[in-house]
């Protein structure tokens, strides 16, 4: 390297000279634009070449997709065999990945995804990017909260959620100071009983383009069971045959079967916090089968494990919030449940060193 | 050339040319036997102001990210081509070996194994630091090894 060579450099040289930047900081001088504005050509030659490389790669991948789709058509027509289904699935997965990689390098697609504008989940690239984002950002948090609060060993065996579920109880339902992710409360947050009386809007982010049927259940695993000196589960809400897909993200009761209507969460006084868990279980045959839930066979005391094993449901998504007794719970008992409100407490402590009369027990007998 | 170290090197050159005596010594304990080199090093490292961070507008940032993606793509394609080439070579080698195995099992075994008891030539002259007194005997001819039958 030629040692003392005076190099005249302009102040903001990024546009005129392609420098190898080691610390690049983006300064957003103007507010986020409403529509994508493509960067001007002819300013940075490397950028123009980059666009050519990306376009070439895209063309190659699209050609590859065409040949793979032809191969898939052939495979579908071929004679059925044991390996055929797995081969078809593998080929479909390859086609999906190629479709995603073909468009992922487009700066417009990147801008759209970053700013959440025109994110069309029917396109493979956006489904791919969203699933990656879910696995990277949302999933670790859900897993951590679920294991920390012991939701998984108590209600279900440990599993990895593949679908993102979020609840919205309306405006003002999230208390001050709660962490909010994408406009929804973080998994495991505390909510007030007064704000969860009405049923929530359930938003589901799934990554399959085809429609599948799910079962939605809201369970409270922390209801005290005094006779057995343990806790019992209570089903607060059960809806079967909910159609969901990457484009169909909201739960609507019109298209589904409500087996148990929504019952407001009511943690009794004297108990510790209750974990109200909403699970999303895929119905059998990869979500294609509809399930007939007999209202007489299912009660609010049915456990989740029994429900899933009986109807062969596979749990794919989970979220939960916590609640503690409040004066509004008394109102819920009076108005909605129309029961006497139970109050729980500890057993009175027995001092082993005193006898029934309250006197100190004699150690020795006078012979 | 726009090396990231050009600026620091330039600064060092200027400082070295200016020389140490113009500025007073710091602390005094660094220059050993009157040598100002440590002072100079400290001056270059700590007194030279750091480079300001490169600031990009959002348009430039988009360009930068696109360039990075395209470069990754190129590297990926190169690696893919290399892997394919290697895979082809391996396949040809494997086929050749399979054919040899089918042709002659003795030749195949000989091709797949190495002599286990091979040793360095024991007739080698021991290496020394200095040459011998008589480097080469020009009178007698060199002893050639007996040709193998």
From TrEMBL, chain A:
Q: Which InterPro entries match?
A: PEBP, PEBP-like_sf, PEBP_euk
Q: What is this protein called?
A: PEBP-like protein
UniProtKB/TrEMBL annotation, chain B:
Q: Where in the cell is it found?
A: Mitochondrion
Sorted alphabetically, the Gene Ontology cellular component annotations on this record are: ribosome
Question: What protein family is recorded?
Answer: Belongs to the mitochondrion-specific ribosomal protein mL40 family.
Q: What is its main location?
A: mitochondrion
Database matches in InterPro entries: Ribosomal_mL40 (IPR019192), Ribosomal_mL40_fung (IPR042831)
Q: Region (Disordered) spans which residues?
A: 14-36, 104-149
List UniProt keywords, sorted A-Z.
Answer: Mitochondrion, Ribonucleoprotein, Ribosomal protein, Transit peptide
Q: What is this protein called?
A: Large ribosomal subunit protein mL40
């Amino acid at each position: 390297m030629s040692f003392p060579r005076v190099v005249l450099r302009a102040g903001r040289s990024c546009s005129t000279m392609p420098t190898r930047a080691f610390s690049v900081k983006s300064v957003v001088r103007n507010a986020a634009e409403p529509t994508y504005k493509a960067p001007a050509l002819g300013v940075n030659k490397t950028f123009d070449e980059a666009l050519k490389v990306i376009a070439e790669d895209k063309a190659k991948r699209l050609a590859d997709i065409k040949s793979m789709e032809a191969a898939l058509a052939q495979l579908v027509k071929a004679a059925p065999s044991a390996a055929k289904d797995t081969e078809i699935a593998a080929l479909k997965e390859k086609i999906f990945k190629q479709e995603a990689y073909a468009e992922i390098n487009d700066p417009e697609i990147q801008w759209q995804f970053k700013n959440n504008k025109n994110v069309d989940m029917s396109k493979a690239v956006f489904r791919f990017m969203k699933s990656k984002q879910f696995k990277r950002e949302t999933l670790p948090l859900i897993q951590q909260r679920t294991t920390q609060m012991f939701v998984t060993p108590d209600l279900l065996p440990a599993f990895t959620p593949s679908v993102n579920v979020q609840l919205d109880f309306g405006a003002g339902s999230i208390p001050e100071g709660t962490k909010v992710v994408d406009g929804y409360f973080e998994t495991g947050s505390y909510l007030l009983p007064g704000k969860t009386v009405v049923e929530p809007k359930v938003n589901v982010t799934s990554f399959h383009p085809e429609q599948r049927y799910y079962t939605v259940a809201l369970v409270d695993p922390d209801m005290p069971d005094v006779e057995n000196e343990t806790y019992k589960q209570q089903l607060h809400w059960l809806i079967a045959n909910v159609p969901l897909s990457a484009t169909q993200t909201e739960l609507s009761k019109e298209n589904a079967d409500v087996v148990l209507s929504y019952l407001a969460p009511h943690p009794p006084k004297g108990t510790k916090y209750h974990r109200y868990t909403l699970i999303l279980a895929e119905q059998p045959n990869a979500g294609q089968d509809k399930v007939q839930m007999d209202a007489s066979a299912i009660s609010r005391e049915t456990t989740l494990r029994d429900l899933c094993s009986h109807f062969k449901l596979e749990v794919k998504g989970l979220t939960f919030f916590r609640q503690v007794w409040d004066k509004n719970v008394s109102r819920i008992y009076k108005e909605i449940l129309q029961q006497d409100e139970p109050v729980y407490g500890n057993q009175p402590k027995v001092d082993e060193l005193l006898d029934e009369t309250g006197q100190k027990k004699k150690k020795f007998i006078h012979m | 050339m726009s090396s990231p170290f050009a600026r620091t090197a330039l600064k060092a050159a200027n400082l070295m040319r200016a020389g140490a005596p113009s500025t007073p010594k710091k602390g005094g304990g660094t220059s050993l036997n009157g040598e100002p080199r440590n002072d100079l090093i400290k001056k270059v490292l700590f007194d030279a102001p750091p480079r300001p961070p490169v600031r990009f507008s959002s348009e430039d940032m988009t360009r930068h990210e696109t360039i990075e993606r395209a470069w990754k793509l190129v590297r990926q394609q190169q690696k893919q081509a290399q892997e394919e080439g290697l895979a082809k070579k391996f396949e040809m080698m494997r086929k050749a070996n399979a054919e040899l195995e089918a042709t002659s099992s003795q030749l195949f075994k000989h091709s797949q194994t190495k002599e286990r008891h091979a040793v360095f030539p024991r007739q080698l002259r021991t290496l020394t630091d200095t040459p011998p007194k008589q480097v080469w005997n020009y009178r007698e001819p060199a002893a050639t090894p007996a040709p193998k039958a």
